[in-house]
Specification:
Order of helices and strands: HHHHHHHHHEEEHEEEEEEEEHEEEE
Radius of gyration: 25 Å
Structural class: alpha+beta
Amino acid sequence: MSQTTLPSWMARAPHNLGSPNQGYVKADQWRTACEVNLVITLIWLWGRPGSKQKYKDYLENFLALVTAVRWATKRSTSEVHMKVVQDNFQLYLRSLVRLFPLSVLKPNHHLSLHLVECMRLFGPAHGWWAFPFEQYNGILGNANTNGKEGEMELSFFKSFCRGRNLRALVQQHDLLGRVSVLCGKYISSTSASQGSILSNIELLWQPSISGITADGGRAEQLKDAVYQGLLACLHLDSGPVNYCPDHDDTPGAVVLSRDAHVVEKIIIENTTYTTNRRVHRDSLIQFYRIAGEDSQSGQIEDIFLHTRVGPNGDPLTEYFLVVQPFNPLSPAQEKHDPYLKFPLLDVHLYHKELLVGLVIRAANVISHIACCPYKGGLPEGNMQVVLALCRE
């Protein structure tokens, strides 16, 4: 567990999980232990050739439960999602009865078979599960009432209204641009734990492009390697515009500017990604170059905002990432990858070696990844297990 690299938003399981002195384990820690640590460890222990059939059956039982829970708690749903959830819950319960005949099925086991009905009626589980209520119970329990009963409800209501009014105010009359510098200085000097109003300000003052926000950054000229990577990225799906380098005079082509705004972190769908220099564990991602291609994994080296001439002659501004992909296994090596037997968990072996960096659109980032060194006996260099943490 200590060797597994997790993104900063993911709670790390206790290092002594399972021991008598492990202490209280929160739900997020159990989730990390079961969906990441145990998946990586148990497939390595029980999923290899030569493992006893008993342990392979235990592994299939456990991973059926993990697959069902993981797909049931994604932030989007579909008939495909629901079929995966239903099939794996049924597989888990059937194998549970077969492997542990003396165990007694609990009401929650029966209720799990009705989860798909709730997903079909109400949508993704995160929209109606009980975790937010438990969180707010904790907030209410820790609130300082000063011994004045009956006033706490009004205080929470006023705080909520202030936050909503502030959001509406700064979105009018270009007020956001006028106070962004002040907001930035205020946030940097104030703890973010002081309440939801500060969080609203922090999200609002950051510049947003197509729902993607970033920190202040600095203006720079793109270096040759990154500039050529950007040209290659745009040539993949740039549409009717033919971009050319600044030393080219091809008729009808549009010269691509080297001017860029370099940043160290970026927020995509409320998830923060950073460069490897800033926070290594938040730089590890799963991505694709263009839609329809197989996903890859790697680490972010640079992030920049670039403006170019669009199809209609108007300026087109977009965030890009420079990513170094992990070296994938060869077809011969993949035959020895025990994780490929469980494609629904999206976990693979990679070489630790990094390939030459390439430029991708920020919108093509899929999710963070968890990484752990692999010691499974493959002779061809250092390996690592990469598990995608996609929540969509």
